[in-house]
């Protein structure tokens, strides 16, 4: 599950999952839903991403920023994600395709993940939640 949350001029993204890995993957879907409709993105190419941090919340921001970077330099959109976490290291895979303005409904451009409302925690139901505000 993923969702957006209100923030003054920017947009909050949140990923929720049974595991921290699922929450990170859902956070990536929330990021993509700011940019376009993730359901319309086909899984034609894969991109591998690695990040490392001792702090779970900082690792989430690094993951989101790495995805933004890959979207920008490769001119791609992503619709599916897989995340593996081990010893403070994230190894992720993003599946997607080149941007196609005729098929993808672009909303806004995301510039970066910020440290505003950056959190990684377990909620009262035992689910992992990761979130941050993205600069649009």
Q: Would you write up a description of this structure?
A:
The protein is an alpha+beta fold. It has a single domain, classed as Archease, Possible Chaperone, Chain: A, domain 1 (3-Layer(bab) Sandwich). The protein is built from two helices and eight strands. The chain has helices spanning 20-35, 56-74, and strands spanning 2-6, 11-17, 45-52, 76-86, 89-98, 112-113, 119-122, 128-135. The strands form two sheets. Strands 1, 2, 6, 7 and 8 form a five-stranded antiparallel β-sheet that branches. Strand 7 (119-122) and strand 8 (128-135) form a beta hairpin. It is globular and about 40 Å long. The model has no long low-confidence stretch (mean pLDDT 94).
Which class of secondary structure composition applies to the elements? alpha+beta
Quick one: CATH superfamily?
Answer: Archease domain
> How far is the N terminus from the C terminus?
22 Å
Low-confidence segments, ≥5 residues, pLDDT <50?
A: none
Mean pLDDT score, rounded? 94
- SSE order: EEHEHEEEEE
Largest sheet: 5 strands, antiparallel
Number of strands: 8
CATH topology annotation: Archease, Possible Chaperone, Chain: A, domain 1
Overall, the morphology is: globular
**Oligomerization category of the chains in this entry:** single chain
CATH class: Alpha Beta
Give the arrangement of secondary structure elements:
Elements: E1 2-6, E2 11-17, H1 20-35, E3 45-52, H2 56-74, E4 76-86, E5 89-98, E6 112-113, E7 119-122, E8 128-135
Antiparallel strand pairs: 1-2, 2-8, 3-5, 4-5, 6-8, 7-8
Helix pairs in contact: 1-2
